[in-house]
Amino acid sequence: RQPEQDHLMTELLKNFVAGQWIAGAGAGTLLRDPVTGADLVRVSRDGLDLAAAFNYARNEGGAALRAMTYATRAARLGDIVKVLQANRDAYYDVATANSGTTKNDSAVDIDGAIFTIGQYARWGAALGDHHVLADGACIKLGKESTFASQHLLTPTRGVALFINAFNFPSWGLWEKAAPALLSGVPVIVKPATATAWLTQRMVADVVAAGILPPGTLSVICGSSAGLLDQLQPFDVLSFTGSADTAAAIRAHPAIAARSVRVNIEADSLNSALLLPDAAADSEAFALLVKEVVREMTVKSGQKCTAIRRVLVPEHLYDAAAQAISARLAKTTVGNPRNEAVRMGSLVSREQYQSVVDGIAALSQQTSVLHDGKQHALVDADPAVAACVGPTLLGTRDPDSADVVHRTEVLGPVSTLMPYRNLDHALTLIRRGEGSLVASVYGADPATLAQAGTALADSHGRVHVISPAVAATHTGHGNVMPHSLHGGPGRAGGGEELGGLRALGFYHRRSAVQADAAVLDAIAAAPFTL
Ligand code: NAP
To answer: Pick the catalytic residue: 175, 265, 495, 496?
Structure first.
């Protein structure tokens, strides 16, 4: 047989739309094991009736979800948690095969998703048996009048389209779907093609369990072509991916002319900052070093929140370079099926090339402090596997090294830079033009508070670490559903999670002006958000 015929022997994953499993036409796109290069499965959505898929979700799924209360939908989220937990082992197998991740790294995606849905199930239960939410208090419109205004949040009568990135096929779906479904809005997810398998498998398990009414959860695997054309004014679009694709999406008529609400999570040049009063033997220094290494190596650095820029006081530049490099040197890289391996591969050979090119671009204005090439691969062929060793770069002149402030390399790569004083450090961090997260390390609460507050306007999250929280903090790059995820500027300007705040994206806010008696009747029903 020809190699192409071999590909056709692999399973063609079906799409779930309009309440049916439908195979796309043609041979589709082949998904590969990024470590061994083995063929896995194929995806195609060619020939799908997209208009019918979106209408079914919008009309059937939307109506069914809106007929339930928040508490009922929260209970369904709890049922989803049980199904995903029951099939967890299979998800780990898919992640190893399709994403090249070690067990610990697969957990970030899989268990992170299950934890997030569980949180929304709990928070949602507290919203009770209501169909709408009150936003703030009722306000009288005039001194004597009984005429008053009450803001209401009602679920949007549309569909939520998710276009997701390759690095979180599980969490990327559920961190968005949990608040959407809890809000009463049906979901259509289009995972990134390279790692679509895990998303498709999870949707298949939830559909098979019969937890959700028909039309509430759909999955389309393959090309994004034509998806945005289906969007109508009350639909919402949540996109996670590169800044280039985000720019194309923003210019689409659905957004530009039909006012479809859009949330964008894009590139981010996240920073870690060691405060000026830290010494090389301080606990704050050790905490920064540990976190930088963890962030560089977890999921092979393929986290949108990973630390890309490390800022230390000038006199600690060499000490930091040595300490981080010494820890990185111990990282075993290669086939995640080998127990000795701590860091698996990138998701594809294309990503491998993109990271190699990114390191070359950064290297034009930096020097190599720890060379990833010195890591011999364990159980993996360097000519085939998408494995890149952790690479620490450094520049002693971060003011003129502009490339490090604008180039995100989505791999195990970070750049160390010295600063003169706190103002200088903050100025350098802001050159990232808006990021998802910055972490700050120090011991003095007042200085930590000052730096943390100063960074808040340009970051969705500020992670402030002192020795007091050394054992309890949740990690620079870990996205907790309790806290906001998203960032201004380059990071896309989006907002996700943050507890029940996430429901705002899926609700419409309107002011109802009426006699106080009417508003009392409304207020008797909803829960205040
Ligand atoms: P990408 O190439 O922009 O792709 C993202 C998604 O958009 C994929 O599903 C892709 O489909 C789809 N797509 C591609 N072209 C499109 C178009 N013209 N219209 C509509 N959709 C289109 O990004 P990526 O390489 O997968 O993801 C890496 C980036 O995502 C990094 O920059 C990372 O920082 C960012 N990210 C951000 C977050 C966050 O929460 N802020 C989280 C994870 C990742 P195909 O796969 O089929 O091409």
So the answer is: 265
